[in-house]
Amino acid sequence: MCESERVLVEYVRKASPPPFLLKTYMMVEDRASDAVISWNDDGTAFVVWQPAEFARDLLPTLFKHSNFSSFVRQLNTYGFHKVATNRWEFSNERFRKGERDQLCEIRRRKAPSSVSKQQPNAQAATSDHSDNEQQRSLSTSSSEITSLVDENRRLKRENDALSSELAVVKRKCQKLVDMVAVEREKRPTEDGGRGLKLFGVRMEVGRERDLEDMKRVLVSQSCKII
């Protein structure tokens, strides 16, 4: 990775939370999974109440693995620490309920300076992996946004087309109603004064309400055809 790309990745990393922290925060915030993972009483830490169910049901949905120990190790690299002996409760001063914007301030821990030469290489590989994960996350988000925009445009075009068709049908129905009104004024009914039936609705002569009923029936039947 060239220097300019590293600068860009570092800028993006500082401007948005690391994907691991964001996904973890989403799981803790989800009220549907409170029986498995949730905030503690004062919202300063979160508790994994059911580690087995958490690893089996929740981890694969966001992290593509079901290894609880790996999840705990990842928490440690971001400065979380276990705060209770009788349960899996983890805390970080910038990981708090209702303070999602603080996630950007949490950074992955650096390896100690006294490590061997092999460990810096491993740290660099981990950093590159994190950079790649960040880039994939941004690329996926951009792709999803583009897809949603295209879908919204397609639905708007379809809605405009349906609105135009409905307007045409209404105009035709109005013309038909006007023609029927004129025709009925010219001659009396031929069925003993009971009036015309249109789609099962009987229309009386000269009543404005019946003309409106006829219009509604015509529009309803036309919409079914469309």
From TrEMBL:
Q: Gene Ontology cellular component?
A: nucleus
Chloroplast is among the record's keywords: no
Q: Which residue intervals are annotated with compositional bias (Polar residues) in the record?
A: 113-127
Q: Name one GO molecular function term.
A: DNA-binding transcription factor activity
In the record, biological process GO terms are: regulation of transcription by RNA polymerase II
Question: Has keyword Hydrolase?
Answer: no
PANTHER family reported for this sequence: HEAT SHOCK TRANSCRIPTION FACTOR, HEAT STRESS TRANSCRIPTION FACTOR B-3
Q: How does it assemble?
A: Homotrimer.
Protein name (database record): HSF-type DNA-binding domain-containing protein
